[in-house]
Each structure stands twice: as C-alpha cells, then as structure tokens.
Amino acid sequence: MVKKVKQSASALRNDLPSSVVVFLVALPLCLGIALASGAPLFSGIIAGMVGGIVIGALSGSQLSVSGPAAGLTAIVIVAIGKLQVFEAFLLAVVLGGVFQIVLGIIKAGILGDYIPSSVIKGMLAAIGLILILKQFPHLVGYDANPPGDESFNQADGDNTFSGVYDALRHLLPGALIIGLVSLAIMVVWEKIIAPKARILQLIPAPLLVVLVAVIINETFKTSAAGFAIKESHLVKIPVATSLEGFLSFFTRPDFSYITNPVVWTTALTIAIVASLETLLNIEAADDLDPYQRVTPTNRELMAQGAGNMVSGLIGGLPITSVVVRTSANINSGAKTKMSAIFHGVLLLLSVAFIPKLLNLIPLSALAAILIFTGYKLAKPSLFVSFYKKGWDVFLPFALTIVAILLTDLLKGILIGCVVGMFFVIRSNFRSAVLVVSDANRYLFRLRKDVSFLNKPIIKNRLEKVPENSSVLIDATRADFIDKDIIEVIEDFLKHAPLKGITVELKKSNHKDQGFSSNGSNVKVHAKPFVEEEPVAV
User: Fold this and answer.
1) Which residues of 337-358 are buried (b: 16+ CB within 10 A; e: fewer)?
2) 439-531 domain in CATH 3.30.750.24?
3) What is the reported pTM?
4) Predicted confidence (pLDDT) per residue in 293-305, tens digit
C-alpha cells in the first residue's frame, strides 16, 4: 500500500505539469475546430472537457488524450448544413456514441493491430509537419484560417502551402515578436534551463510562454501601441456574466429528430470515422509510450462511445483520441491517465472562472507551443533512421506522410497501408520460392506461403528444365500452397517422363498440401518437417 501511494505521488508530480501543457495545447484546438466546423465555439470546449474527464477516466490508455478532432471537421460541417438545427446534430453525436459502444462489444478494436509500424510512424511525422505548416501563419499573426483546421484545402481558398506563403506577406510585427520569443523560451527552457534542477522540470515551458506572451502584449498596449495585438488575434472564449449565463452555453439534443434518416447516417459516419481515428491514435500513443504499455482497444472504443454520448447530451462536438494532445502529454512527461483527466478539469475551471484572462493570450504564443510539439513528432533524425532501414520500410513511411499532407488522415493511412501491403507481398513473393540448379540437377524449394502470385515464375522455371534432368521439389517448408501452384506442379509431374525428367517430391505428412497425382518417374516422400534436412544441389 505504501509503495502504491509513493508511486501515485511520483506520477502526480509529472502528471500535473503535463496536464497544464495539454490544456494550453488543447485550448486553441478546441476553439479552432469548433470554428472550422461551423459549430458554437463552446461546443469545442465541451468536447475537450468530456474527452479529458469522462474518456480519461474510462479509457484503458494511460497517456492518450481525447477531444474534438480535425479529422471530423468536414463531417460535422456537412451534417450541420443538412440538418440545419444544431440540436439535431447533437442527437447524431449521441447515437454515434451508441454505435461505438456496439463496435467495442463486438471486438472491432482488433482492426488497429493490422496497421504497419512504418505507417504509424509516418502518420506521426505527417501530423508533426501539419502542425508546423498550419501554425506558422498564426505564429506571424495571419489568422485567416482557424487554428484547429488541418485540412489541405482551407476554407479561405488557400491550401497548406499557399497559406504559408500568404502569411509571409501579412506579417504582424507584434505577433511575430511574441511568436519568436515563445519559440525561444520553449527551446531554451527544455534544452538548457530545466535539466539543471529537478524543481525546474516541474514548471511547464508552455505556461511560461503564455505568461510572458501576455506580459509582452500588455506592455505593447501601454508603451508601443503599433505592436499591440488586436482582439482578433487573441484567444476568444465566450464569457458569461452569471452562473445562468454559463449554463446556457450547454445545449441538449432534440430527440424529436430521432426519425430523421440524416441523423442516423451522420451517427453511423461519426462512429466509423471516429473509431478508426481513435484506433490509429491509440496505436501511435502506445508506440510513443516510454513504458510501451498496451491499450485494450475494445475498451477504448466503448470509452469513446460513452464520451461521445455525454458530449452530445450536453452540447459538445464528437470526440476521438487525438495525436497532437497525446504527443504533447507524453513529451511533457506524463505517466498516468490523471494528466488527461486534469487537463479536462482545467478546461472546465478556466472557462468557468477566468475566461477574460484566457482571452488575453495571443494566438501566436499558442502557435509556438504547437510548432514545437510538431517538431518533436517530425525530427529530421526520424527521416534519416527510416531511410537507413531500406526502401521497403522508408517508402510506406514517406508516402504516408505525403498522402496525409495532401489529403487527410484516414486517406493517407489507407494509402500507406496499401503501399506497405505491396512490400509485404513482394517480400513474400521473392522468398516463397527458391530455385537452385547445378548441371542437370534442379531444386525447387517452396517456403512459407506460396500464393497464385508465384504461379508464373514456378511454371516458367519448370518448363525450362532440360531433358534427362533430375528435379527435387521440396514442399516440406511450405505452410500454405495455393491450388493453382499444386495444379502447375502436378501437370509437370505428369508430363516430366516424356522429357526423361526424374522428379522427387517431398511433402509434409502433417500438412494437407493437396498433392494427389504421381508420374511414372516420380518419387514421393511424406515426412514430418522436423525430419527434413537442407538439400544441396
């Protein structure tokens, strides 16, 4: 018991500072995603609170952080446009949560285990690059696009790359100064100052960034008005003047739309997309976890479903596990799920009691925090290490990054998986059949899984065996042989005597490999695999 208390206290020393970092990262994203989705700004904050408190408590993941996701922005904005009533959309969010719970019950969480590691790493690097590219305009004071929008084609007519170019033509001196100072604080504090003393490591660099940024901007207002940042480039949180006003920000779904088919199709779409994004992000979170803990994915789907039900019932956007918040949580040293829960509590307390103070924070300072987070996800050393591993690993990694940058998360992952599958098939294709020859003796060794893709090479090489040769076909090491391959071999066994070819076929007696025909010059051996010795030809 004493040991557990000490471990909890030790974890709390890490989780509390980490929760502050995640809170500062989540705040602009919650607001930006709500703005980009065409939903009330407070709905994004509600989703962030529920993602931290409810899902954080129910999830089996120790480090994953959930909240409103940019990947659902397009779905949300289309659904709200079709339904015309935000309360009807909230009903779809609730039903989507029900569907997710069903997915967890039927154990659909196993889908995440089939994503190659190179694709997961590519996804993390792509999100890091997206953070850098998307937050750069906000760093220099160009806020034409909402902070939470991660799509390639933006609502303002720009795309990810042209947005950077336009930002360079619309620099705000005050925002640029605050952004650069914020970046410098992040780097210097983490690399030089914090490592010098344990007590300094408990002070989150993002908190210092926010405090310094607010002080600088308030100083500009009194001493250099030309550099002062206007309200349009500051955080914008709805401010309530009373408890009743604050409670009015929460909205209930309208159950009278339960028979509307658009509500049901939207709910199913939210459930599928949110579940896929969650499974991908959980895989990434487990990969980033320094303790390499494994999250129970089916429990995660049910936790996400419960979170979406609660979010929809009180006026929030749909929720998924989010890599940006999760990576910030891990990089800031979190050890347990208490960090995610605390960040949700901080969101609730801050918007309830200090919204006016939060509205003093420059977006450029928060952009600096996100850019630094993005750099940690997409360090140059990561690209170098994958390049050294070979093209069969590097290409899925690189193409996943490019695809996500130019499309979206799910499409990019799908493209990465297809490329990864190509290399798996190619590797199996090359290693499944070994053909060795010495004078007039030939060895055909079938290994692992021999599929119909190997049919052309086997058929071609068998037909090229010259007359009066001896052939050994060793199938003892094959786990699976496609029927097309068996047919090719049996056809060869039948006409081999016509060319004076002597054939020896070795197969396992404990595997149903499907061979049935023998020729007059064919010897068939059926021995256990363990008794077979390598054959030199």
Assistant:
1) bbbbbbbbebbbebbeeebeeb
2) yes
3) 0.80
4) 999 999 999 999 9
